[in-house]
Design a protein that fits this description.
Blueprint: H1 4-11, E1 13-16, H2 22-41, E2 45-50, E3 53-58, H3 69-72, H4 75-85, E4 91-92, E5 96-102, E6 128-134, E7 146-147, E8 160-161, E9 169-173, E10 178-179, H5 196-201, E11 215-222, H6 226-236, H7 240-247, H8 253-261, E12 265-266
Parallel strand pairs: 4-12
Antiparallel strand pairs: 1-9, 2-3, 3-5, 5-11, 6-9, 6-11, 7-8, 7-10
Helix pairs in contact: 1-4
């Protein structure tokens, strides 16, 4: 059988089954709802409603969330990132979030050179990965992830449903074409609709419902490289939304110590905003 690293290099993503137990997933759901209440009191929450989506978010990354940072630093999460990247030298730079509800759809890359295949991202092995923890099943329900395998190395390709269950852990290259919040059709659950404009117009009576309210957590890790430096300089530090997100991320001593103990290098992009 191919290793995680080999499959990740070939497909640009990997689905690891049954990482978390049903009890852990139920606990994570409770933690997210509780964290949202804390963030609401801190006036960090906001809602985005557009193009068929309606999702709740909070400013500030997961490392800054007292109830959620242990999930970000869970050894099983870090191990999968290490295996996919082929390195134990993980850097975390504040790129993570949680989401409650149905978000935007549409195939895209998360890297800098999303359509320019002659860009710097394409000239050497890419070193940034994103992990997704979905706290409900999407094997037969709407709301899951679609990917186009191999598109971290080519312009386009056919799509597949990732078909994750609650408890699974998904990792993908920021170079990979992917689309979240996938719609499944009643009676045709394996039919993939790759046009987000069509997905957004599908009437509710034709959709398979989500198993329960969609909750997802996303986190990005990297190996130190020119790709990481460029992503920080050209994306994280140039967009008003990412800057606001980062400035709202204030790390406790406990969280920073936990990251250090797990061997994760934390790159704090706005140290002047940190807790005393």
């Amino acid at each position: 059988m191919n290793s995680i690293r080999e499959q990740f290099q070939s497909d640009g993503y990997f689905l690891q089954r049954a990482v978390f137990s049903a009890e852990e997933i139920a606990h994570f759901r409770d933690l997210v709802y509780r964290q949202y209440e804390v963030d609401a009191r801190r006036k960090l929450t906001y809602t985005l409603s557009a193009q068929g989506s309606h999702a709740r978010y909070a400013k500030g990354d997961l490392l800054s969330k007292e109830l959620l940072y242990p999930i970000l630093l869970d050894e099983r999460v870090l191990r999968l990132a290490q295996e996919a990247l082929g390195s134990t030298d993980l850097t975390y730079f504040g790129d993570s979030s949680y989401q409650i509800g149905t978000g935007l759809r549409g195939f895209h890359r998360d890297s800098l050179d999303r359509t320019n295949l002659d860009g710097e991202d394409w000239k050497s092995p890419y070193t940034l990965v994103r992990l997704g923890i979905y706290l409900q099943s999407h094997r037969l329900h709407s709301g899951g992830l679609k990917v186009k395998p191999g598109t971290h190395q080519k312009a386009d390709g056919p799509s597949v449903f990732v078909n994750n269950d609650a408890g699974d852990l998904v990792i993908w290259s920021l170079m990979l074409l992917h689309s979240g919040n996938a719609v499944r059709i009643k009676g045709l659950p394996n039919l993939r609709i790759d046009s987000s404009s069509i997905e957004n117009r599908i009437p509710s009576f034709l959709k398979r419902e989500e198993e329960k309210e969609r909750i997802s957590l996303f986190m990005t890790f990297a190996v130190p490289s020119r790709h990481l430096d460029r992503y920080i300089d050209e994306y994280e530090l140039k967009r008003s939304d990412t800057i606001e997100h980062l400035k709202s991320s204030r790390y406790s001593t406990e969280a920073m110590n936990a990251a250090r103990d797990k061997g994760v290098t934390v790159k704090v992009l706005f140290p002047e905003n940190q807790l005393a």
